[in-house]
Amino acid sequence: MRRWYGQFLGFIAGWLLLRHPVGGLLGLLVGYAFDHDWFTPPRRAEKRRPRQEQPADSTGNADVDWAYRVFELPATASDAELDRAYRRLMSQYHPDRVAGAAPDLQKLAETKSREINAAYDRIQKLRKQ
What is the third-level CATH fold of 62-128? Predict the structure, then answer.
């Protein structure tokens, strides 16, 4: 739930300080920024706990299921669907696309692209067999 009182108090303070309607509008703008947290620093990314490996079931499909979950595809997906999903995700998470971004975002893109590549290689290897 967003705050509402920043806009109200900003409008009143701006009007009273500048004694002009423009002051009220400026105060309203500052109040809007306050209500929508423009002045708070961004939260640091929470350190994620390492994902616990799930024990492989008797059929050994845990690794394959993981690979298909990365692409959000069923195991019956065609090669064309797999390639489309791979290209879509790599165009989104490729490290070169976020070269000028924050270091945290670069690191996230690198780990996600490694995961995508590992999943794609795993599926390709299983399909060649």
Answer: Helix Hairpins (1.10.287)
